[in-house]
Amino acid sequence: MNPRWPPEQPASAGAPRRVRCPACGGPSVFAPTNPFRPFCSERCRQNDLGAWASEDFRVPGPAPDDDLEPGSG
């Protein structure tokens, strides 16, 4: 099964927490100092936003009934 998300590395006292970037899988600082968190960079954040905007990612939902005509229900 999928490991715990976000996968954490042990942090020493005062060290910022590092997580895996959801876009590229690289290390990302999960702290207020990283304006792109949980992403590692603006590029990864923009790529993820673009994927949602182009409907590469979809939230599953019920399939529409094909036998109904628009406006008949």
Question: What keyword list fits this structure?
Answer:
1 helix, 11% strand, 16% helix, 2 strands, single chain, alpha+beta, elongated, two-stranded antiparallel ribbon, 73 residues
Give me a quick take on this structure:
The chain has about 70 residues and is an alpha+beta fold. It has one helix at about 40-55, and strands at about 15-20, 25-30.
- Portion in beta strands: 5-15%
Helix content: 10-25%
Please state the average pLDDT score.
Answer: 81
Largest sheet: spatial strand order: 1-2
Coarse structural class: alpha+beta
Number of strands: 2
Distance between the termini: 42 Å
User: How many separate helices?
Assistant: 1
Written description of the protein model:
The chain has 73 residues and is of the alpha+beta class. The chain contains one helix and two strands, in the order E-E-H. A two-stranded antiparallel sheet has the order 1-2. The longest helix has 12 residues, at 42-53. It is elongated.
Question: Layout of helices and strands, plus pairs?
Answer:
Layout lengths: L16 E4 L6 E4 L11 H12 L20
Antiparallel strand pairs: 1-2
